[in-house]
Amino acid sequence: MCGRFAIYSRFTKLGYQLDLDLDLPPRYNVAPSQSIPIIRSAEAGGYEVVDAHWGLIPFWAKDRKIGYSTINARAETVAEKPAFRAAFKQRRCLIPASGLYEWQDTGGARKQPWFITDAAGDGLAFAGLWERWTDPATGELLDSCSIIVGAANDLVRPIHDRLACILPPEHYRDWLALDAPPPLLHSLLEPCPSEWLRAWPVSPAVGNVRNAGPDLVAPLSGA
């Protein structure tokens, strides 16, 4: 799963591909239930960056509590699961990230967190879904999102068996296109090449969401 990530890159390649200015405030410990930036097709054409609640709330949900269990959608079942299938057909998005954290089971009492980032240092785009939900009690509109996760690649597999689906820049627009054919969409959810990424162990401090400094992504001393 993908339960924590960081945002601090310039995202020049992502901005160039979609003609967007992605000057995003740095955040080093992004956690579920927080508001995060997503990129989606705009109604007037082109693309837009908006904030969305991390934890997708289907349009048919009675309350927002379902969002606690929908921070991730499995690539293998995203097209069929009731919570995600409508969004997969019509409301796909990109989620800009500089990297993500995964926890490695080392056999001890505490798992070791690792930071996984792009080799080029320009940032990544996760495959995501978004939904718009209306609170039946108040009429409030809330946009929410989920990160799609699939099998890990060779680099990440020793750390964790799952990895956020990272999209190739040449297919950013394809992922957002409303008329994208399902076979193409599913092909984009395959594990990204290992050479795209770098990884190193980091401080267990990232496990506390109140910790938020750039030191969280620094390699663990002695690693």
Can you offer a commentary on this structure?
It contains four helices and twelve strands. By secondary structure, the protein is mainly β. It has a single domain (5-208), classed as Alpha-Beta Complex (hypothetical protein yedk fold), CATH 3.90.1680. The strands form two sheets. Strands 3, 4, 5, 6, 9, 10 and 11 form a seven-stranded mixed sheet that branches. A five-stranded antiparallel sheet has the order 2-1-7-8-12, with no helix packed on it. Strand 9 and strand 10 (141-151) form a beta hairpin. It is globular. Keywords: Covalent protein-DNA linkage, DNA damage, DNA-binding, Hydrolase, Lyase, Protease. It comes from Crenobacter cavernae.
Summed up:
With 223 residues, this protein is mainly beta. The chain has helices at residues 12-18, 85-90, 172-176, 182-187, and strands at residues 5-7, 27-30, 35-41, 47-54, 72-74, 92-97, 99-104, 112-118, 124-134, 141-151, 162-164, 197-201.
CATH class: Alpha Beta
Rg calc: 17 Å
Which architecture name does CATH use? Alpha-Beta Complex
CATH superfamily: SOS response associated peptidase-like
**Gross geometry:** globular
| Major sheet size, sense and barrel closure | 7 strands, mixed
Which regions have little confidence, pLDDT < 50, spanning 5+ residues? none
| Average pLDDT metric | 96
Distance between the termini: 24 Å
Tally of strands:
12
Portion in beta strands: 25-35%
Proportion of helical residues: 10-25%
Number of helices: 4
CATH topology: hypothetical protein yedk fold
Number of domains: 1
Structural class: mainly beta
Order of helices and strands: EHEEEEHEEEEEEHHE
